[in-house]
Amino acid sequence: MYTFAEKALARAAGITSARAGDVLDIQPDVVFSHDNSAAILRIFNQIGAPAVNRPERLAITLDHAAPAPTTAHAQNHADIRAFAAQHGIRLFEVGRGICHQVLSEEGIVLPGEVVMGADSHTPHFGWLGAFGMGVGRTEVAALWATGTLWIRVPETLQITLAGHIPMGVTAKDIALAILGRWTVEGAAYRAVEFAGDALASIPLDDRPVLPNMMSEFGAISAFMPPDQAVIDYVSARASRPFTPLYPDADAVYSAQSTLDVSTLEPLIALPDQPDRVVPVSQATGTPIQQAFVGTCTGGRYSDLAAAAAVVRGRKLRARLIVIPASAQVLSRAVRSGVLQDLIDAGAALGTPGCGPCMGNHLGVPAPNEVTISAGSRNFKGRMGTAGAPVYLANAAVVAASAVAGQIVSPQDIIDGETFRAEGSA
Amino acid sequence: MSTHRVWVYGDNVNTDLIYPGKYTYTLRADADIRAKALEDLDPGFVSAVQPGDVIVAGRNWGCGSSREQAVTALRLCGVQAIIAASFGGLYFRNCINQGVHPIVLPEIAGIVHTGDVIEIDREAGVVRAAGREFVIPPLPDSVRAILDAGGLLPMLQARFSALSTPVKPEFAP
Ligand code: SF4
């Protein structure tokens, strides 16, 4: 009868059922914000609310420009620290990591819950079976003041991932395939529900990429049905009980599509829009000056490990910036030796956080410099410089391109070395 | 009924083009935020825009980031309404919250040009452009109320100031 979005939003509204199109007042289980909390608290202070409503539901991360690159950023952070301390709001300090990664690691967002974040990639939490939605600054201030916000229950688009995922194809490639096929407005105003046997074979670490990047697809939210692996992950971290929600078998969808993942290969999004997607082979040979492994969709442990496997024992022809998504990712990469491999090859390491993803610091390109990024967004000017094109690909392709100084796939590097070795023998 | 000069833009204009991400944490003053509107899309906009102007755009206007300044900057330029074939979902909400009317009209983008004048008749619920008339899709009442209040902040301010007005008790038990 009901989609996941209908069930989760009805629960958050305290009513028994809701349908797509209904306008509800809901009380989200978790509300978070990041460096933009400085602007949010200024709006909150204008509202005239006597106190912050249920501060135990709130979380703030300092991640988008951290450590502070300028005095203005530093003042924002100082204002946020003082406000959080005054109102008893959980604060994750500079260096802890990116909001979406940290709130997952900390067991703050749980299956079946509704989370609203002052960040457009909040659909990320669909990997945990939660309804995640981005909201604006005034909306977060309103949530701090009242705990309640209106929402129109979205229609849902169901995407079934069928087939076996080939070697070298990651969740980033699946997300790019969806964008390439159905464009940046393919899900406009709607929620996305994933289904299909291929989901279970996506490694846990890689799963958040899919719902996260559905924000590039125009989706309000995105959901993956939590399997036992997710329930185990959450159970080890959660500090309160939770009840997962699943769509009904006879839920009503606005559209249903199937993507056969067995025919996919590593993909790349050409500059200025994440749906300008072609196979990496079609962009091969494009010179690059900067390669970036990081962000909420390209800075997880599996990304660093994939990049390390490519650069191990090789030298870089373009600069490679590596920024772990969180301190836990960094710590794991230190212990496993992955970080050593990256540093030995010549990578530059940044503090866990967003890095140059949205052009604040730690890798802003010069005009006309070309960047290949493991992130999710390549709009004109996104990394801080309007005339500096950005390509998007998975972390192994990014690392291979850093080795070659031009866009290549990891296999191209191995093939090239084999060829040279045979030629000189 | 009011008349408005229009600025026409295309499909999939994202929030980085409307208000670049690099300014989101540092600029606070209205004049500074206003000055960055459409910086990477239409550098001539800020100096030529006049209060009362409206934007007419194609599909998916305001896709991308949730940044509210992508609406605020235009509001500070005096933009009174944004008409688009469709909106990014978060941008649509931010418009409501900033008191800028988001009007979904797929038919209008192709028939007007920058500098043309259109009419918005809120009482009749129509837009008149290029000799034709288009019905403004109605908003749910609760959402319309936010717009009518001038946005979410003024609405909440009114609500909390009403709450804090001392009420003389009828009787003391
Ligand atoms: S890493 Fe990039 S996309 Fe992710 S939250 Fe930070 S700025 Fe946004």
Main attributes of the structure:
heterodimer; A: 425 residues; alpha/beta; Aconitase, domain 3; 2 domains; five-stranded parallel beta sheet; globular; B: 173 residues; Aconitase, domain 4; seven-stranded mixed beta sheet; 7 helices; binds iron/sulfur cluster
| Integer average pLDDT of chain B | 92
Number of strands of chain A: 18
Task: Report the end-to-end length of chain A measured between terminal Cα atoms.
Answer: 67 Å
Strand content of chain B: 15-25%
Share of residues in strands of chain A: 15-25%
Order of helices and strands of chain B: EHHHEHEHEEEEHH
Helix count, DSSP H or I runs of 4 or more residues of chain A:
13
Helical content of chain A, roughly? 25-40%
> Which chains have the largest interface?
A-B, 55 and 43 residues
Question: Could you explain how this protein is built, in words?
Answer:
The complex is a heterodimer of chains A (about 425) and B (about 170). By secondary structure, chain A is an alpha/beta fold. Chain A folds into 2 domains: about 5-260, Aconitase, domain 3 (2-Layer Sandwich); about 270-415, 2-Layer Sandwich (Aconitase, domain 3), CATH 3.30.499.10. Helices cover about 30% and strands about 15% of the residues of chain A. Chain A has 13 helices and 18 strands. Chain A has helices at about 5-15, 35-45, 70-85, 100-105, 135-145, 170-180, 210-215, 230-235, 300-310, 325-335, 340-345, 395-405, 410-425; strands spanning about 25, 30-35, 60, 90, 115, 130-135, 150, 155-160, 190-195, 220-225, 255-260, 265-270, 275-280, 290-295, 320, 350, 370-375, 390. In chain A, strands 4-3-2-5-6 form a 5-stranded parallel β-sheet, with helices on both faces. In chain A, strands 16-15-14-17-18 form a 5-stranded parallel β-sheet. In chain A, strand 2, helix 2 and strand 3 (about 60) form a beta-alpha-beta unit. Chain A is globular, with a radius of gyration of 21 Å. Chain A starts with a helix and ends with a helix. Chain B is of the alpha/beta class. Chain B has one domain: Alpha-Beta Barrel (Aconitase, domain 4). Chain B is built from 7 helices and 7 strands. Chain B has a 7-stranded mixed β-sheet. In chain B, helix 5 (about 90-100) links the parallel strand 3 (about 80-85) and strand 4. The longest helix of chain B is centred in the C-terminal third of the chain and has 13 residues, at about 150-165. Chain B is globular, with a radius of gyration of 18 Å. The termini of chain B are far apart. Chains A and B meet through helix 2, helix 3 and helix 5 of A and helix 5, helix 6 and helix 7 of B. The structure holds iron/sulfur cluster. Iron/sulfur cluster binds near residues 98, 121, 354, 357 and 376 of chain A.
